[in-house]
Design brief:
Length: about 375
C-alpha cells in the first residue's frame, strides 16, 4: 500500500516539473491560458486552459493608507521614491486635490496663511500696559524744537565774523533767514551789536550798514527795538569787557534812528521797565547826537571814516597830532593804540616821514 502512494507522488512530481518548463515568466504558457487545477489536498496550481479563453491580468495600483489605519497583510505597499509623505503637508486621507491642508496655514509651528495678518481685525486688550484709549483720534503736527539763545549765538556768530571779511549783506541776510525763527529775530540785533563792541570802528560801521539792510528782509522795526532793549539790560555785564559800551550803544541807536530803522521816540521812551545807570548814559548819548544842529547827516560818519576812505590830508594831520602827543606824554602804548585805531596800515610810512621831518627841524 505504501509502495502505491510513493509511485503516485513521484508521478505528480514529474507532472509539476513538466508544467514549470512550459510556463513563461508571467505564469502563462506560450499558447494556453492558465487555470487552476488540484495538486494536493490544500494546494492549487495553474493549469493551461483551453483555446479561446481570454487572459485576465490584475492591474497594479498605488495603495495609500491613513496614518491611523493599518494596511492589509495580503497586499504590498508601493511608495513613489520622490515623494516624502512624512514631511508633506498634503492631505493623506485620499480625498481632495492633493493641495496643502488649510491652504498652508495648518501644522505645527505655522502662524497662519501668508498675508492673513492684514485681513485680521485689530484686537485691543484693555489690560495691555501699552493700551491707550486715545489712540483712535491721532493728529500729527509738525513740531520745531526751540533753540536756546546760547545755541543761536553759536550758530550765527560765524556768519557775522565772515561778514567782516567779505562785506556782503545779501549773503548774511540769506544765512540768517534760514537760521532765524520769529521768536529769535530780536536776537539778531543784540548779537550783532555785542560782537561789534569787541571790534574796530570800521567793523562797527559795517554792523550799522548790516542792520539797515536787514530791516524789512529778516527783521522788522519792532524786532530791532527789542534787540536794543536786550543790549540795554546787558550793559552792566558788557561794560566789564568793553568800558565804552554805553557810548558805543548810543552811537548804534542814533545811527538806527537816522537810517529809519527805529522811530525817534524810542530814545526818550524805551520799552525797558527799569533802566540801569549805563542804559541812561547810552540813551543820553543817542539823544545828544540826534539833537545836534547839523541834523542827522553827520550820523553817517558817526564811526568815522575808516581807512582808505579818509582823505590824505586828514590822515597826515592825524599822524602829526599822534607824534606831538607822544613827544609830550612819552606813552608808547597809547601811541601804538592810536596808530592801530586809524586803520591805515598802508599809510604808516607817513609816520616815519613825520618823525624824520621833526628830527631834521630840531637840528
Amino acid at each position: 500500500m505504501s509502495t502505491d502512494k510513493m509511485a503516485l507522488a513521484a508521478e505528480r512530481k514529474m507532472d509539476v516539473e513538466t508544467l514549470h518548463e512550459d510556463i513563461d515568466e508571467d505564469g502563462v504558457s506560450d499558447d494556453e491560458t492558465p487555470r487552476r487545477v488540484a495538486v494536493g489536498k490544500d494546494e492549487l496550481m495553474k493549469k493551461p486552459a483551453g483555446d479561446g479563453e481570454r487572459v485576465k491580468r490584475k492591474a497594479k495600483r498605488l495603495v495609500k493608507h491613513n496614518s491611523g489605519e493599518r494596511a492589509p497583510t495580503n497586499t504590498m505597499d508601493f511608495v513613489v521614491p520622490h515623494r516624502r509623505w512624512k514631511n508633506s503637508r498634503r492631505s493623506r486621507n485620499g480625498y481632495g486635490r492633493g493641495l496643502p491642508k488649510k491652504g498652508g496655514a495648518g501644522g505645527k509651528g505655522v502662524w497662519g496663511l501668508p498675508g492673513s495678518e492684514i485681513l485680521e481685525e485689530d484686537f485691543e486688550d484693555h489690560n495691555d500696559p501699552n493700551y491707550d484709549s486715545d489712540d483712535k483720534n491721532i493728529e500729527l503736527k509738525e513740531v520745531i524744537p526751540d533753540i536756546t539763545p546760547e545755541e543761536y549765538f553759536k550758530r550765527v556768530e560765524p556768519i557775522f565774523l565772515e561778514y567782516y571779511e567779505h562785506g556782503d549783506t545779501l549773503e548774511v541776510a540769506q544765512s540768517l533767514y534760514e537760521e532765524t525763527t520769529e521768536v529769535l529775530r530780536p536776537l539778531v540785533t543784540s548779537i550783532a551789536i555785542e560782537i561789534a563792541m569787541d571790534h574796530k570802528q570800521s567793523h562797527r560801521e559795517m554792523t550799522s550798514v548790516l542792520i539797515s539792510d536787514l530791516y524789512g528782509r529778516v527783521v522788522s522795526g519792532r524786532d530791532i527795538s527789542r534787540g536794543f532793549d536786550m543790549v540795554l539790560k546787558n550793559l552792566p555785564d558788557l561794560i566789564l569787557d568793553t568800558p565804552e559800551a554805553p557810548t558805543i550803544l548810543g552811537n548804534f541807536i542814533a545811527r538806527a534812528v537816522a537810517d529809519d530803522c527805529v522811530p525817534p521816540r524810542y530814545v526818550t521812551n524805551p520799552e525797558v521797565e527799569e533802566l540801569n545807570e549805563y542804559a541812561i548814559v547810552a540813551l543820553k548819548r543817542a539823544d545828544t547826537l540826534l539833537n545836534m544842529k547839523k541834523g542827522w547827516a553827520h550820523l553817517d560818519n558817526v564811526w568815522g571814516m575808516g581807512g582808505p576812505l579818509r582823505p590824505v590830508k586828514i590822515i597826515t594831520k592825524q599822524m602829526t597830532l599822534l607824534l606831538q602827543e607822544y613827544l609830550s606824554s612819552r606813552d608808547i602804548k597809547e601811541a601804538h593804540r592810536c596808530l592801530l585805531s586809524l586803520e591805515v596800515p598802508h599809510f604808516h610810512h607817513e609816520l616815519v616821514y613825520e618823525v624824520s621831518q621833526f628830527i631834521f627841524s630840531q637840528e
